Structure formats: structure tokens, C-alpha cells
Amino acid sequence: MDLKQLEYFVTIVNEGNITAAAKRLHMSQPPLSNHMKLLENEIGCILFERGSRHIELTEAGRILYSKAISILDLSKFTLQELEAYKKGIFGTLRIGVVSSVGNIFLNNLIVPFHELNHDIHYEIFEGNTYELLEQLKANSLDIAIIRTPFALSSFKYINILKEHMIAIGNESFFRNCISSDSVTLSELSAMPILLYRRWESIISSILEQKKLQWDIFCKSDDARTTVFWSNAGLGVGIVPESAKGFADSSKTVIKNISDITFDSTISAVYNLDAYNSSTAKQFLKYISNIYSIKSND
């Protein structure tokens, strides 16, 4: 099995059939079909069922496709890093970022780091925490800037910033609140709640202890979505404080949750078992030097 075979296989899957893949690869169909037969013979598995119009991946094919994507990405990133080295460019940082920390990541980390390291280039990948941890595990990223809670597994982390969860919604939802600048868990139970899904189990546990129940109107995987639904007047969003930048101040108000503190910590996570480039190590050292909250090193 070589990289070229994996590239052929991935192209076939992406194009949906061998004919279209051959056209994309600028080669004729018979040699491409032959490469796939050789690959199947080598690994001892049928990778896809060949139909008249489309191919259908087998379970073995789905496994190989997932791994092939990671292998080809790693190969591409390695070549890019070597090419940058030849050109005298210090390197490229591959960083995954969750949407809710975008401004903090840019202004607090990248801008000051760039002032010290003008020759470093960047590739930014956006996704939710689970997606970025999978990419980190597959070595498609050097570092992921995500927020707690997350499963540590084999990852190492440096905590950057701890922030509170807040409530965002149309002012009409908060008319009966006692305080003008905060809301209680009990008061929230009378409102349609827009919930950042990753906090569901934690919040459910707290509400159970307090014998309260919320009306969860919508759950989502992105803090921006929660705030956008709040802007539309559909409910009260429970999001990290840094997500308030997405709120429309003409349509919403922001309230602290007074009777309990929900904390979410923004962390720089990396894979200790993977190869870490000198560029990645330099960035992690920079973070360690300016943020001294907590690390699990």
C-alpha cells in the first residue's frame, strides 16, 4: 500500500464511481481499476461494491477511507513543513479552534505571538470540541484551542482563560426577574432555554440536585447558533461569556446566573504521543509563559 494508491481510493470514494475518479485523476479507467484490485488483494478485503453508476463502501472500505484521509493530510502537512523549511520560512502552525473562542484566540494569542514570530504561517481549522479532538488524535492538527469539559484521554493541555456561563435573551423573558442584572436557576425554569449541548449533562445534574427542571427548547453544538437563536427571540441562550460578542444588543440583554457559577475554561490541547514540530513547541512554550492557570504536564 502506498500514498498514490490511497489517493486513488479516496478520489474514487469522493467522486462516487471509478469513471469520474479516472477523469479527475487524468488517467484512463482500466489502470485505476487495476490499482484498486491490487490494493484489495494486498489488504485482503473488498473495499467497495461496484455498481453500474455508484460504488458502495464496505465496512472495510469505510475504515480505510477514514484512515486514508488522515494519512494523506499528514503527508501533505509534512511536505508543506519541509518546503517551508527549504524556503527559510520558520514553519506552519495547524490550529483547530472552536467558534466561541475566536476573538480571544486571535487577539490574546495570535496577534502578540505574530509580533514575535513574523515568519510563522497558519492553517486554522474550525469545528466543535469533539471534531477538533478527533483531528488532533489523527495528527491533522498541532494544537486545538477548545473549552472544557472534554475527555483528556492521551491529550495534554494548558489552561488559558476561565470564564462564566451567562444567559442571553430578549428582555421580555426577564421581566419577572427580581434582579435587573442577573437571573436565578429557578427563574430560568420559566423560560424556553437554548442550550449549548456539551453542558447538558452538567446542567441536568445541577438542576436535579436543586429539584428544578428547565424547558429545553433547543440544543446545539455551536455557541454561535445558540446566540443567533437568542437574537431571533426564540429563547434564552446559556453560553460562555466570550460568545456574547455574537449577541445583537438591540434585541437581547445579557444576564449573569446569580445562584450558581458555571465555569468554562479555554484550553490549548495537544497530543503528547504525536510528533510536535518546533513551531508547535514554540507556540506552546509561548502560551505556557503568559498563562499560568493550570497545565497537566
From TrEMBL:
InterPro entries: HTH-type_LysR_regulators, LysR_HTH_N, LysR_subst-bd, WH-like_DNA-bd_sf, WH_DNA-bd_sf
Domain HTH lysR-type: 1-58
GO MF annotation, one: DNA binding
Record bears the keyword Transport: no
Short name of one Pfam family: HTH_1
Keywords noted in UniProt: DNA-binding, Transcription, Transcription regulation
GO cellular component: cytosol
Similarity-based family: Belongs to the LysR transcriptional regulatory family.
Protein name: HTH-type transcriptional regulator CatM
